[in-house]
């Protein structure tokens, strides 16, 4: 069993195989534990000197003071082999930017956002809000991460959801999956779970982005659901196996849900919620923010309505999967069909015909002269439109005059 230093030294030598060196993968595994994700300066340092050299310098104490301060006591620790073994036991793997499977296109928005961050740490965004690319991703499941996230939509919302919200989230998840889209959420109670279940019910893939290790079912009540997601889709996390779901990690995790998808749908959100935070991350990344309206009396829809009221935020109201796909899909190829409206035999009638029809009584028949008087037109005009109204089964001749055609009797009704 080689040490981390031996693997790093071997990985530093030029390679001609074209495959990801095990030492490079181990370096990124170590870096994923060394500093909490979302740290601007640490990601920049790794990018500048490459992950193998970054790990070597931090381990030997030759890294800049700022970087060594970020790592702290973790610099001398090494759990990489244990992490990789835990991952292998639960059917997971470490996907790194050097892999073909890495969703580079989706995550490039995070790279652009990090480039805009100032170099002075005091003026950088807080770690829980910074849009920083991940150094690596622990992935559990058989599917490829890049393929599953290529056509994906985030469906997020409150944990303390209502029956209305869960119904809408389940329908959206089912319909999106049925049309070939991957549903991405956070695996939590409430809206997240409903969206995942809807996608699974349609035999479609779904991805849960976790704030803990992929081997750790959290929340415990969703353990069976998370196992189903791993079988049909993917569990994804920036934290190594065994990592605990600390509260700050949920805030950091939200940027990944926003970045990996083409748009974020907020189904239910309270005045302060993680779903709103995810929506704001999506907006900052230039991704569509879509909102499902709720009852104005529901506290669980206050956040949704605030997103819609924010004109600068650009959130769009959606009520169906077709409308979601229209916003995030291809231009001109994923258009939602027009809303179907009920039709009536009166549709398309001319103004004159409509006035004559309105003049007809319900029970007794009246003469064309009487209809002309009520409709405010000439008798000849009444005689001209009556045949067309009769053909449309809107009026009928009683033998003594014209009246509206009675509605059809229900089956079994007395004559």
Automatic annotation (TrEMBL):
GO BP of this protein: DNA-mediated transformation
InterPro entries (alphabetical): DprA (IPR003488), DrpA_SLOG (IPR057666)
Cross-referenced SUPFAM superfamilies: MCP/YpsA-like
Residues annotated as domain Smf/DprA SLOG: 120-328
Any coiled-coil regions, as ranges: none
NCBIfam families linked to this entry: dprA (TIGR00732)
Family to which the UniProt record says this protein belongs: Belongs to the DprA/Smf family.
Record protein name field: DNA processing protein
Annotated source species: Blastococcus saxobsidens
Species classification: Bacteria, Bacillati, Actinomycetota, Actinomycetes, Geodermatophilales
């Amino acid at each position: 069993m080689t040490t981390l230093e031996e693997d790093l030294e071997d990985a530093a030598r030029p390679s001609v195989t074209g495959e990801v060196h095990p030492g490079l993968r181990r370096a990124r595994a170590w870096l994923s534990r060394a500093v909490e994700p979302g740290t601007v300066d640490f990601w920049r340092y790794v990018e500048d000197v490459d992950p193998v050299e970054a790990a070597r310098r931090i381990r030997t104490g030759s890294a800049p003071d700022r970087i060594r301060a970020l790592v702290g006591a973790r610099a001398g620790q090494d759990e990489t082999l244990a992490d990789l073994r835990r991952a292998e036991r639960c059917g997971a793997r470490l996907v790194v930017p050097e892999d073909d499977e890495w969703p580079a296109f989706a995550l490039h928005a995070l790279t652009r956002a990090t480039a805009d961050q100032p170099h002075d740490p005091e003026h950088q965004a807080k770690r829980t809000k910074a849009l920083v690319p991940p150094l690596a991703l622990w992935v559990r499941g058989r599917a490829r991460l890049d393929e599953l996230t290529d056509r994906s939509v985030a469906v997020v919302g409150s944990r303390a959801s209502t029956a209305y919200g869960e119904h809408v989230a389940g329908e959206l998840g089912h319909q999106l999956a049925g049309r070939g889209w991957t549903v991405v959420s956070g695996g939590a109670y409430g809206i997240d779970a409903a969206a995942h279940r809807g996608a699974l019910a349609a035999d479609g893939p779904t991805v849960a982005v976790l704030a803990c290790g992929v081997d750790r079912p959290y929340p415990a009540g969703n353990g069976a659901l998370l196992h189903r997601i791993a079988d049909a889709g993917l569990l994804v996390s920036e934290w190594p196996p065994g990592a605990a779901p600390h509260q700050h990690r949920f805030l950091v995790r939200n940027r990944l849900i926003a970045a990996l998808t083409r748009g974020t749908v907020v189904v239910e959100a309270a005045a302060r919620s993680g779903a709103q935070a995810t929506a704001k991350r999506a907006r900052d990344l230039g991704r569509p923010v879509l909102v499902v309206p709720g009852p104005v009396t529901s506290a669980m829809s206050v956040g949704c309505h605030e997103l819609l009221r924010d004109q600068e935020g650009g959130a769009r109201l959606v009520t169906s999967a077709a409308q979601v796909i229209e916003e995030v899909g291809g231009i001109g190829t994923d258009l939602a069909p027009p809303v179907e409206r009920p039709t009536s035999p009166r549709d398309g009638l001319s103004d004159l015909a409509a006035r004559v029809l309105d003049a007809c009584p319900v029970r007794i028949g009246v003469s064309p002269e009487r209809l002309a008087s009520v409709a405010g037109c000439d008798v000849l005009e009444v005689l001209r439109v009556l045949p067309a109204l009769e053909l449309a089964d809107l009026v009928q001749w009683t033998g003594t005059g014209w009246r509206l055609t009675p509605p059809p009797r229900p089956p079994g009704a007395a004559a």
